[in-house]
Amino acid sequence: MRHATRQQIKQFHSDRKQLPYNDCKIAALLQIDKGNYSKYVNDRQPITLRFLGLFYETFQAELAEIAKGIPVSPSVWEICSRQMDMIFELKLAISRLSKRILELQDR
Q: Residue 26 is part of which domain span?
């Protein structure tokens, strides 16, 4: 597997930061494990030309719009997805709190 050049890696990081998504969402859109994606982003695994090809194939339209100055905003699905994640986290926190209250009452 061929590794990307320093210039290609620098361009990748620049382009990645311009996208309106967090790294977890970028990994999901690339259809790769977020842990593996994190290894690329944090220089724990060399960025290959194959990885860059996948990244630019997935995001070329959005990056082109950004380059033209057209604002790229998160879709309704993105917003709903984030809200659902927050609701899920709140439900987990409430469940943990309820269990803790019951434990304290049993003492």
A: 1-70
